[in-house]
Write a structure and sequence with these properties.
Elements lengths: L1 H7 L3 E2 L21 E5 L4 E4 L6 H5 L15
Parallel strand pairs: 1-3
Antiparallel strand pairs: 2-3
Length: 73
């Protein structure tokens, strides 16, 4: 059950704030972002348009607040 919940949980980019439901896109809407890093247990990640945040993510310097509901607190 935990694995299924994590797969269905919406993540937000630590760089730009985009989410699974509202991805970054170009003006034509044809080039959208994708996750370079994502941790579904806390609902955070780094999208492909925020690649400069990957080193900090890999070093563990991202927001570690715990998801306690449908919105991060």
């Amino acid at each position: 059950m935990t694995m299924a919940r994590n797969l269905l949980s919406i993540a937000q980019c630590v760089g730009c704030g985009c989410t699974d439901n509202e991805a970054c896109c170009d003006t034509k809407g044809t080039d959208v972002c994708y996750w370079l890093r994502v941790d579904r247990t806390i609902g955070k990640g780094v999208c492909s348009w925020c690649a400069e945040y990957v080193p900090a993510w890999d070093a563990g310097e991202y927001d570690r607040r715990i998801r306690i509901g449908p919105i991060d607190v």
